[in-house]
Design a protein that fits this description.
Number of domains: 2
CATH architecture of the largest domain: Alpha-Beta Barrel
Distance between the termini: 38 Å
Largest sheet: 8 strands, parallel
Number of helices: 16
Oligomer: single chain
CATH topology of the largest domain: TIM Barrel
Low-confidence stretches: none
CATH superfamily of the largest domain: Glycosidases
Structural class: alpha+beta
Helix content: 25-40%
Strand content: 15-25%
Length: about 625
């Protein structure tokens, strides 16, 4: 049984575990019926008649995909579900066929030796606001008319925008009317929309209760299943408007395409024409390219007879000339005379509520806590226990620009650009080490980087035609070297069973899957279809009889170096995963002292240290010729 022990995961023998795995999967964000992986879906706004059964893959293909991942050493699964998949038909109406499917897949994964933690995934609130996650009825419950989001710029959605659709547009939905409103109501409705009731219930309570109850449907199915560690809290939560001090300006560096300010968003949603800036993004950052007059048809984003929530609560109004007028500039940044803090005042109380509910249903479940993207882990409380820090980290430059740059990086912890190839690599490792340290300090538990990965369609997908993934391998290696240097656990984003060269992961122009059927599918060869495997499939210490001190892997020379301090109370050996694909002629082992045994069936090196010295080093390198008998 895996359990947290301060900054480490440990097994029953007391060995420290470094978890390596993958997010399963990228297309879980969209339904199978209608086919959400196809760009245009009939009945897109009919959010009740859908099914997510078959995400992340058909049950008939599960053994194939899981066997492939296991052969790559990726035996930890961040298993995605969505609120919509569970409760799409309406409040309190749960899709039992989907829950049956999830239970079967997770049971199979556990039986095959996988470790699983469940991620109730969302991005910018919902599919209907440009992302995924919440059911459409949550938007209708607060008065939105989803069919009018395009005209009012309340959300920019691929299905209504059409092609071409830049992959950097969808994140900007977080600041548009629909998504920002929903996040504000979900986390802070009691303070910011106290007059809004849904079925007689305060909107914050209504939304949070349904979300938690939906997750509990999964918890009830998976309790006691082999390998199930616990549950993520809320993927990449957003503050919405909470804390926004200037409603006539932006509070984000990411500005792409049409970018209304909050006040403009309120006005557009209430049927007022607005001239909105159009932004572009490049190596030098965002730049204003011009303006466009929007909502000339004076369409409202709200249902007939439903007022704008923020106008009803006195945030803004229309002046005598028909222009939007801000009435309370600090409405979302001050409550009862004090400045608000999203994490302290809203996110952490939600995490605590969620954790209490999940643990009431499954006392053994770990809670994988997330803060906002690019933020350090949330500080849940001094007395908290059973938490895991599960932040996300990406090489942001290549992610946004879909271009590689060995000399340009971004420091998300200190919010600054990093220049120089060596400086970038050092910075990446330092950032993850800082994030891991903050997780231990704030959550008193270990860290798993919940998402880390790279885009594969660099330079317009040139590698798809040539089969040359050296550029992607270098980027993936740089990120995974940072994982190793910081001694973090991590789950790569992502494995998408339906990935194609044309549509990538099938969602918002993203293509980060480490496997694609279009790269060749042959169940007789598990590696067929894998991308950048030279960087992904690498040796690492699975279980250490003590405390890891230093870990590195040289992809070019295929040399792993690992140093640890032994724990005298641990009698089981240190185990290192050694992938045969990296060592086709076999491998040599150098060690400071001790003995080792090669378990070729499990692709594991078992090392037993001596007690003559406190620290021990293992070096694995490839043989240059045929292995000796």
């Amino acid at each position: 049984m895996i359990h947290p022990d301060e900054s480490w995961f440990k097994d029953e023998a007391g060995r420290v575990l470094l978890l390596r795995g993958v997010n399963l999967g990228g297309d879980t964000k969209v339904p199978t019926v209608p086919d959400g992986a196809t760009h245009y879906s009939e009945g897109f706004f009919d959010h009740r008649m859908v099914s997510f059964v078959g995400r992340p893959f058909p049950l008939s293909e599960a053994v194939e995909h899981l066997s492939r991942l296991k052969s790559w050493g990726l035996t930890t699964l961040r298993f995605l579900v969505t609120w919509e998949a569970i409760e799409h038909a309406g409040p309190g109406l749960y899709d039992t066929a989907y829950l049956d499917y999830v239970e079967q897949v997770v049971q199979l994964a556990g039986d095959m030796g996988f470790t699983v933690f469940v991620d109730p995934h969302q991005d910018v609130w919902s599919r209907f606001t440009g992302g995924d996650g919440a059911p459409g009825w949550t938007l209708e419950a607060v008065g939105f008319d989803m069919t009018r989001f395009a005209e009012t710029c309340a959300a920019i959605v691929h299905q209504t925008h059409g092609d071409p659709f830049s992959h950097v547009i969808w994140p900007t939905n977080v600041s548009r009317l629909a998504s920002a409103t929903m996040f504000t109501l979900f986390f802070g409705g009691n303070d910011f929309a106290p007059h809004l009731l849904v079925e007689g219930e305060p909107v914050q309570e209504y939304l949070q209760r349904h979300y938690v109850d939906a997750v509990l449907q999964v918890v009830g199915r998976l309790k006691g299943k082999p390998g199930v560690l616990g549950y993520d809290t809320f993927n990449e939560p957003s503050h919405g408007y909470i804390g926004w001090k200037n409603l006539t300006a932006f509070d984000s560096l990411l500005k792409v395409d049409l970018q209304p300010t909050p006040l403009q968003s309120f006005a557009l949603g209430d049927g007022l024409e607005q001239e909105v800036g159009v932004w572009g993004v490049g190596l030098r950052g965002a730049r204003l390219q011009g303006h466009r007059l929007l909502n000339t048809g004076q369409v409202r984003a709200w249902k007939e007879g439903r007022p704008c929530i923020w106008r009803e609560h006195g945030v803004w109004n229309v002046d005598g000339e028909g222009k939007p007028q801000l009435l309370v500039p600090d409405y979302f940044s001050r409550v009862d005379g004090r400045d608000v803090d999203f994490e302290r005042d809203y996110l952490v109380p939600f995490i605590q509520r969620y954790a209490n509910a999940v643990r009431a249903a499954d006392p053994d479940a770990l809670i994988f806590a997330e803060g906002e993207p690019q933020a350090l882990p949330p500080k849940v409380g001094e007395e908290c226990s059973g938490f895991v820090s599960a932040p996300h980290w990406y090489d942001v430059v290549q992610l946004l620009l879909k271009r590689s740059s060995p000399w340009l990086g971004y420091d998300a912890v200190r919010n600054r650009i990093v220049l120089g190839a060596r400086a970038v690599r050092r910075s990446f490792a330092w950032q993850l080490a800082a994030i891991r340290s903050a997780g231990t300090e704030r959550l008193h538990g270990p860290t798993v980087i919940g998402e880390i990965g790279i885009t594969f369609d660099l330079r317009g997908g040139r590698a798809f035609e040539t089969g040359d993934y050296r550029e992607q391998e270098a980027l993936m290696d740089r990120s995974l070297c940072a994982v190793e240097g910081s001694l973090c656990s991590a789950t790569i984003w992502n494995y998408t069973a339906s990935n194609t060269n044309e549509r990538g992961d099938g969602w918002n122009g993203e293509d980060l899957s480490i496997w694609s059927a279009d790269q060749g599918r042959d169940t007789r060869v598990l590696d067929r279809g894998g991308r950048a495997l030279r960087a992904i499939v690498r040796p690492f210490p699975v279980a250490t009889a003590g405390e890891p001190l230093q870990l590195s892997y040289d992809m070019r020379h295929r040399v792993m170096r690992f140093t640890f301090r032994h724990d005298p109370g641990v009698i089981e050996p240190t185990e290192v995963f050694v992938p045969p694909s990296q060592y086709p002629l076999g491998y040599k082992v150098w060690m400071t002292e001790g003995t080792f045994l090669k378990d070729d069936e499990r692709h594991v090196l078992k090392y037993r240290h001596t007690l003559g010295q406190p620290t021990h080093t293992i070096i694995i390198r490839p043989r240059q010729g045929p292995a000796k008998p």
